[in-house]
Design brief:
The protein is mainly alpha-helical. It contains five helices and three strands.
Amino acid sequence: ACDVYAMPSRDVPGMPPEGLGLVYLEANAAGKPVVAGRTGGVKDAVAHGVSGLLVDPEDTQGLAAALGRILSDRGLAHRLGSQGRTRVLAEFTWRRVAERFLDALGEVATAAPPR
């Protein structure tokens, strides 16, 4: 029930950065464009200009501009949401994640020196 999902995550001194930002993928899976803080693993979850917009979370004017851009341009909002959903279905389903994990294990196994 939203037009855009915004969560400008930011780094907090002494705390680990955002690991991935599953909530952005969930919003994209629902066909929603996102605005996210450019930090940690968020950059893996949100493809800037494809599934949403990444902003400096400390730049309130930049955040407002990104939100205004999406809210005032229905075509952009629809494109980001649609591309985000397509990206989630292609790259972030449990099946796809498991396939990439197994591929990585196979690479490690073939690269390991014989015992």
